[in-house]
Design goal:
This protein has about 270 residues and is α/β, with parallel strands linked by helices. It is built from eight helices and seven strands, in the order βαβαβαβαβαβαααβ. The protein has a single domain, classed as NAD(P)-binding Rossmann-like Domain (Rossmann fold, 3-Layer(aba) Sandwich), CATH 3.40.50.720. The structure holds nicotinamide-adenine-dinucleotide. Nicotinamide-adenine-dinucleotide binds next to α1. Keywords: Oxidoreductase.
C-alpha cells in the first residue's frame, strides 16, 4: 500500500510506486554506461534488484557500484564493474565482451553516460563542443553500434538512449549540451528505423531536472533552483528512481511494440 504523500517524497526508492513487476526481466543481461554514479548507478542497482545481470561501465566508480550491489543483494542480478570511456569504440567492445564472457549474452544496452557543460554562446570554447559531442553523441553512436552488431546476430534486443528536455527546449548557456541531446533524439529515430527489421528496439528517455550530482550546483543555489523550478509544472526536482520507472517499462515486454519513442520524465518541462 502506498502512502498518500509518497509522490511528494520520491527519493524513497523503497516506497516508490514505481517498483512495478516485470518478471520477464529476470535473467536478462544489460550494459549500462555512466554507471559509476547518478542515474546510471540507480539503473544498475534497480535492474540488479529485479534480477537483471548488469555490466556497469564508467570512467570511475563502476567497480565500487558493482561491489556495493553484489554485497547488498543476496539474490537478484550480478553486477560487473568496468572502466570504460564511451568516446572510445574499443571500450564498448570491452563492455560487450565482459558481458558475453560472464553472462553469455546482451539483451539491453543503456547509453546513459553524459556531460553537462555550460558557457554563454559566444564564449563556448572549441574543446567544449568537441568533448560534449564526443561523450553525448559519439558515445551513444558507438554504444548502439556495438550493441546492435551483437543483437542483430542474436535475435534482437532493446537499446535505450538518454536524451533530455534540453533536446527540445532551449536552456541558456547550454548550446553545446542542448544540441547534443537534440542529436540523441534524432539518432534514436534513425536507429529505430534501421534496426527495427532486426528486432532491435531503440527508444530514448528525456529527463527534465533530476536530483543527481550533475545538477547539484543548481539545487544548492536558491536563486538558480527557483529559476529552474519555474520551468517544471510539477514544481519539484525529479528522482532518479522516477526515471528508472520509464527505463524498466521500455525494456519490458509491455513495450515490445514501441520503438523510436522518446519518453519525457520531466514534470512537464518540455511544455514550458
Ligand atoms: N540530471 C539531470 O537533470 C539530467 C537531465 C536530463 C538528462 N540527463 C542525462 O542523463 C544521463 C545521466 O545523467 P546524471 O544526472 O546521472 O549525471 P551524472 O553526472 O551524475 O553521471 C554521469 C556519469 O557519466 C559518466 N561519464 C562522463 N563521461 C564519460 C565517458 N567519457 N565515458 C564513460 N562515462 C562517462 C560520469 O563519470 C558519471 O558517472 C546523462 O546523459 C545526462 O545528460 C540528466
Amino acid at each position: 500500500m502506498t502512502a498518500p504523500n509518497d509522490q511528494a517524497n520520491p527519493t524513497r526508492a523503497d516506497a516508490s510506486p514505481l517498483s512495478a513487476n516485470y518478471p520477464e526481466l529476470v535473467g536478462k543481461v544489460a550494459v549500462v554506461t555512466g554507471a559509476g554514479r547518478g542515474m546510471g548507478a540507480v539503473f544498475t542497482t534497480e535492474l540488479a534488484r529485479r534480477g537483471v545481470h548488469v555490466v556497469a561501465g564508467d570512467l570511475t566508480g563502476a567497480p565500487e557500484i558493482a561491489d556495493q550491489v553484489n554485497g547488498d543483494l543476496a539474490d537478484g542480478g550480478r553486477v560487473l564493474g568496468h572502466r570504460a570511456d564511451v568516446t572510445d569504440p574499443a571500450d564498448h567492445d570491452g563492455l560487450l565482451h565482459a558481458a558475453l564472457d560472464e553472462f553469455g549474452r546482451v539483451d539491453f544496452w543503456i547509453n546513459n553516460a553524459g556531460i553537462f557543460p555550460q558557457a554563454e554562446f559566444t564564449e563556448i570554447p572549441p574543446e567544449q563542443i568537441t568533448s560534449t559531442y564526443q561523450v553525448n553523441v559519439n558515445g551513444v553512436v558507438y554504444g548502439a553500434q556495438t550493441a546492435a552488431r551483437h543483437m542483430r546476430a542474436n535475435g534482437g534486443g532493446a537499446i535505450v538512449n538518454m536524451a533530455s528536455v534540453a533536446g527540445v527546449r532551449v536552456r541558456v548557456t547550454r548550446a553545446a549540451y542542448n544540441s547534443s541531446k537534440a542529436a540523441v533524439r534524432h539518432l534514436t529515430s534513425c536507429m529505430a528505423v534501421e534496426l527495427g527489421p532486426d528486432n532491435i528496439r531503440v527508444n530514448a528517455i528525456a529527463p527534465g531536472f533530476i536530483d543527481t550530482e550533475m545538477t547539484r550546483w543548481v539545487r544548492e543555489d536558491p536563486e538558480a533552483l527557483d529559476r529552474a523550478l519555474t520551468t517544471v509544472p510539477l514544481r519539484r526536482v525529479g528522482a532518479p528512481i522516477e526515471v528508472f520507472g520509464a527505463l524498466q517499462f521500455l525494456l519490458s515486454d509491455s513495450a515490445r511494440y514501441i520503438t523510436g519513442a522518446v519518453i519525457p520524465v520531466d514534470g512537464g518541462s518540455q511544455h514550458i
